[in-house]
Description:
Elements: H1 9-27, H2 50-53, H3 78-83, H4 86-91, H5 97-105, H6 109-114, E1 118-123, H7 125-129, H8 133-141, H9 143-151, E2 154-155, E3 166-170, E4 176-182, E5 185-188, E6 192-200, E7 204-209
Parallel strand pairs: 1-7
Antiparallel strand pairs: 1-2, 3-4, 4-5, 5-6, 6-7
Helix pairs in contact: 1-9
Amino acid sequence: MNAFRFRRTAVAVAAAAALPLLLTACGESDSSTTAAGKSTTEPAEEQSNPAADDAAPGAGGPFGPACASVPTEGAGSFDGMAKDPVATAASNNPALSTLVTAVKKAGLVDTLNNAQNITVFAPTNDAFAKLPKADLDRVLADKDMLTDILTYHVVGRKLAPQQLESGSYETLQKSKLTTKGSGEDYTVNDGSKVVCGNVPTANATVYIVDTVLMPTS
Length: 217
């Protein structure tokens, strides 16, 4: 479990306590502002393709090989998910059931559903299955650690696919994640691949990934 001992409980508790305030800030801004209410004019390390910054989040529609398994109608379809807030939308996708369980255990359902203009990198069930079962069970049983990990998967602004070409974005957990790629081929933190991206929900843009992301600090 050394790989999971990256945060002390006190830090995780602070992150959980600060999360509603961060997401409230998101809700008070539009998609061109950060969770902290700052302009999207980013420092050098967070800049992506300048042309992409002008692209409308969600433009172009969902893409990626895993999108083929999404139902064509009903609450779990792309049209259905677009009508629901992100945690509810995820609950209608069977491939995200482990993530939904984790979000419930962390007590983040209402927080995520009430947020506005966020990006969620959503690990599939197979992504969680890559973790040793004992480690996964321990994380799911530790609310502080779980909150720390889950908030690392959320960026406080909507990101269009072009903005993933080369970017560094601060998460709600306060560590940064990096993205790179082009077309319909993107990775997060070098190792986690986007398998179904640019999925719209009522309050978020979702990129489904094949590996659980871990904070570096």
